[in-house]
Amino acid sequence: MQLSHRSTPFQAAAFLGWLLLVFAFAALGAVGSSEAPSFYAQLAKPSWAPPASVFGPVWSVLYLLMAVAAWLVWRESTQPARGRALGLFLVQLAANALWSWCFFAWRNGAGAFVDVLIMLVLILATMAAFWRIRRAAALLMLPYLAWVSFASLLTWTVWRANPQLL
I need a labelling partner for 26 at 20 to 30 A (CA). Which of 16, 77, 93, 103 fits? Predict the structure, then answer.
């Protein structure tokens, strides 16, 4: 039985595919941050830094929102810019996973800070591309942009406060 691209089962399968893809990148980043709780506890942090227990739930929601956004854009099969937009989305996901490796696995504060700045540019480019195709998808990326903006400031602050560890 061949499913139509517009059928509900096909759309549900595609959504599941986007979820799996996004959470596969999340898992790749998680491997790089396997020692994150103990390492984060050792770091000098500003008073406004969230506790380690906040990061998992926040990232889970953000990854879910990103998967929905990508799926919404993917559904717009008649849009010629769809491939470029989803390509940008995948590149920013790779940069996202790389941050955990830079910061937690390799303990490279400078690399993590450069990566998070690249992420910000890629997220903005992705959002701009999504906006032209499906505005709701771009708006779903706003919490991610806000969190990564906060994370860039936190990365800078923690890196500068811990030259012996990062």
Answer: 77
CA distance 155 to 153: 5
* Whether 93 contacts 18, CB under 8 Å: no
| Sign of the four-CA dihedral 10, 16, 17, 22 | positive
CA distance 161 to 166: 9
Q: Which residues contact 93 (CB under 8 A, 6 or more apart)?
A: 22, 25, 66
Q: Is the dihedral of CA 33, 38, 42, 44 positive or negative?
A: positive
Give dist(CA 51, CA 40) in Å, integer.
9
Torsional sign, CA 104, 110, 116, 119: negative
Ordered per-residue pLDDT tens for the chain, 166 residues: 444 567 889 899 999 999 999 999 999 999 999 989 899 999 999 999 999 999 999 999 999 999 999 999 999 988 999 999 999 999 999 999 999 999 999 999 999 999 999 999 999 999 999 999 999 999 999 999 999 999 999 999 999 999 999 9
Please say whether the beta carbons of 89 and 123 come within 8 A: no
